[in-house]
Amino acid sequence: MLLTKYTHACVRLEQDGRVLVIDPGVWAEPQALDGATDVLITHEHADHADLDRLKSLPDLNIFTTLDLTARIGSANAQAVLPGDEFTAAGFHVKAVGGKHAEIIDGLPGCANIGFIIDGAVYHPGDSLFVPHEPVTTLLVPASGPWLKFGEAVAFTRAVKPRQAIAIHDGLLNERGIANFSGWMDNNTGAEYSYLSPGTHIDL
Questions:
Q1: 30, 94, 155, 168: which has the highest count of C-beta atoms within 10 A?
Q2: Are the C-beta atoms of 160 and 191 separated by less than 8 Å?
Q3: Domain spans of the chain?
């Protein structure tokens, strides 16, 4: 499986000509969706879901939360709930979690679905939900108003992946990325990677 990292929270998975994209938000490069047939969206925030772009591609199969499905308004948008299992672009997907991490005072209080792909790759969206099943590769959030570095380290330790790849890094400058990477390298026990936008890794 080939994983390509795009800006912020967007990743693209490819295998045997199949293309699955997760969280193509407003900061993600348009080419992330080239050739994609299926998209997973963890939640409604614009840094994870570029609604204008998605609505311009009506043939995409979109799997996301109930509220966002209604806002997209496409016959190809399907709502998923925690515990659901389905196939997207030929990959097996399990939906987990269900709730966005709190920022303050219960906000933002919206749904957030994490996705485990082929029992191996876990994209949690904006949450620190630890799934019951083991995963090989954790896409670990690096920054956000709901997150501090120590929580990302503890989350990675709890999930216990073989490798961790940073996502949700669009609010960090080079110093912040280096700082986060240092904490991850030295404290998680996982093989850690930071991928610049447009670069990829074989899983």
A1: 168
A2: no
A3: 2-195
Which of 9, 5, 47 has its CA nearest to residue 141?
A: 9
* Cut 0.90: pTM above it: yes
185 contact partners, CB below 8 Å, separation of at least 6: 192
Cβ proximity of 193 and 142 under 8 Å: no
Rounded Cα–Cα distance for residues 192 and 166 (Å): 8
CB atoms near residue 83 (< 10 Å): 9
CA distances from 166 to 37, 122, 181 (A): 25, 12, 8
> How far apart are alpha carbons 61 and 38 in whole angstroms?
5
pLDDT tens, 3-20?
999 999 999 999 999 999
Q: Rounded to whole angstroms, how far apart are CA atoms 147 and 35? A: 33
Give yes or no for a contact between 42 and 126, defined as CB atoms under 8 angstroms apart. Answer: yes
Write down the CATH superfamily of domain 2-195.
Answer: Ribonuclease Z/Hydroxyacylglutathione hydrolase-like (3.60.15.10)
Pairing state between β 137-141 and 111-117? unpaired
H helices within 65-112, ranges in order?
66-72
pLDDT band at 93 (very low <50, low <70, confident <90, very high): very high
